[in-house]
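Letters spell out the chain; the tokens describe the backbone. To illustrate:

===
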Amino acid sequence: MKLSVAQARRPESIGQEVTLQGWVRTRRDSKAGFSFLELNDGSSLGNIQVIAETSLPNYESDVKRLTAGASVTVTGVVRESPGKGQATEVLATGITLHGLADVDTYPLQKKRHSFEFLRSIAHLRPRSNLFGAVFRIRSRMAYAIHRFFQERGFVYVHTPIITASDCEGAGEMFRVVTMDGEKVRSGADEFFGKPTYLTVSGQLEGETFACALSNIYTFGPTFRAENSHTSRHAAEFWMIEPEIAFCDLEGDMALAEEMVKHLVTDALESCAEDLDFCNRFVDKGLIERLQFVRDRAFERVSYTEAVALLQGCGQSFEFPVEYGLALQSEHERYLTERHFRCPATVYNYPKGIKPFYMRRNDDGKTVAAMDLLVPGIGEIVGGSQREERLEVLLANLREQGLEESAYEWYVDLRRYGTVPHAGFGLGFERLLMFVTGVGNIRDVIPFPRTPGTAEF
């Protein structure tokens, strides 16, 4: 029976004849005339111990040559292990060597490696304990996101990666051109007949489907040409963006808070071994912080109230706190970690610091926007009620210097059966940083794309 290493490590596998396939982590030879192999196939953090006796026909020719990184198929019997910290081990009846790894050049030796070094070998770093854990958690969180929305009747929509519109209005977009860039620069040729870009968001297109299918979500890659070298920014990242028809800001906040709690709970229940590793070697307060978010209700506070709290707290901040300026990570973390001591949702932001599509409040100064803040990270979700009123939306476009003709299809949604609707965006990598405790976005993406770096 072919099993994964994770399956073979379970006590119920004892007595089974199995086939395991994976990579050798270590080999240790006993004076008693056999070898201990530590085998891992990526299915779990833990390895399984394989006992290779000298009676194997290829013991001298193959087994004694195995080093870290070598790939093998092992057949044998699972038995109870007398060793501490492991329930099972495998007594090998056969070992097939597939590929050796040169011990002198294989970069992943049995020692701690820095994040910087592992980024330089992103094609091999998933074999390390840390990145195996991070990317298993990433896989589970992607599944949990789909499950959350599917169980609530949301329709999964694939929005375009190539777009002709700028959702955020900031202009930090990658332009799409053909290999013959000279024609494009001269204006002689555009593949799509107009300038096009890699998308920064699927929100606008998602709204079109929400106005037909009611509740939808997108989950895909987005791109931002922001020349930022901080630990929180990447040029390519993944976004989850639900859109909910017949929904106001209150409903939007409630869904976002429910989703964050669902994802944190799922991680604690389904990724216990990997989270324990991250808690021990990455962030010793990780599990306590995740439990903190799971168990506590979100505090809600308006932007105006948040600014007043920050200005009166007596805390010295690197960035100024003024009405009309965006809250920085240090401000957001102060609110969750020091003031409220729980996750928080800040709502009703000044219209001048938010995009054109957010619904203007009756005060004429603020929009129905919200950000969800969590300890250790700050903002993890940003969203708003969308402006459903035709004349107000047109005024917003004019105020922000945007061409109405570029958004004609979007404006049509307000002409034909407009409804109140709302949505939000969750940066998938920002979520993973929070769930794993890893402090740099480059370390929760398989192949990070940042200014000056597009390796692999």
Observations:
- The chain has a mean pLDDT of 93.
